[in-house]
Amino acid sequence: MNFELPFIPERASKPRNKGVTMMMDKGLSLRETEAFIEGNGHLTDLVKFGFGTSYVTPNLKEKIKLYKENGITPYFGGTLFEAFYARGKFEDYLRVLDQYGMEMAEVSDGSIIIDHDHKCEAIRRLAKDRTVLSEVGSKDAGILIAPNRWIKMMKTELQAGSWKVIAEGREAGNVGVFRANGQAHTMLINKITAKVKPEDILWEAPQKNQQVWFIKLFGADVNLGNIAPNDMIPLECLRLGLRGDTFFEFLPEDYAKRLKQVDSDVLNEEDL
User: What is the pLDDT of residues 162-207, one digit of tens each?
Assistant: First the structure.
């Protein structure tokens, strides 16, 4: 960091297993990618080429090379996996991963229904040669999954070889573990984390209020994803208590208590 400041939560150095931040690349140009890395590469663990953008993004190999050279792991979004799977082209998908040198892969079933045993088999197959992220939850707001089902799928997918399970939230943050208005499904999340270790979950949380909520619940080292390129530094400031929303999260209790007290010398409105 640029200077010393006490009471800042310690963050693990990259590569890290917790406190992971995933940026969602929805079509950055090569020059935008270079600029992003210059300003945010030190904070970025993963970059997801969102949904099927890798199919139409120019200079894809060059972008992948840039990310890798700067200690960032890129991967294709789960919707691309589903696009291949729905067409009976799983073997072709594996060849595409090899063609682009992708060391990480995502397995999801947010857009189509995949038998869970078959999904776990795909995870096992990919995990032989790659790091796997698997996503749980539907992109359809009308499909509600019971907490016990969330827990069972997450546990089973971790056992099948997933490095982390992604809790669906979409790029808008309005499905899965979130309500339509973007508020967290508190009871659902509490039930999940009572059975699945939070460090094994990457929460899709594109909205600032969602990021604040997870940081306050799990601390600075919560895993967060679907972060917009321009939100990477603002998110790190939230993690470190350097924004008003989390300012008092990491200060000692006596500091926070003293600083939150109303000064008796401050005039009330009626005194003016």
Answer: 999 999 765 556 567 888 888 888 999 999 999 999 999 999 999 9
Asked whether 229 and 36 are in contact (CB, 8 A), the reply is yes
Q: Which domain covers residue 238, as residue numbers? A: 21-271
**Residues 1-42 pLDDT 10s:** 899 999 999 998 899 999 999 999 999 999 999 999 999 999
* Whole-prediction pTM: 0.91
The CATH number for 29's domain is 3.20.20.70
CA 137 – CA 27 distance, rounded (Å): 24
In the chain, what are the helix, strand and coil shares in percent, each to the nearest 5? 45, 15, 40
CA–chain centroid gap for 140, Å, is 19
**In whole angstroms, what separates CA 271 from the centre of its chain?**
49
Looking at the domain assignment, is residue 146 inside a domain? yes
The one-letter amino acid at 19: G
Residue 9 belongs to a domain? no
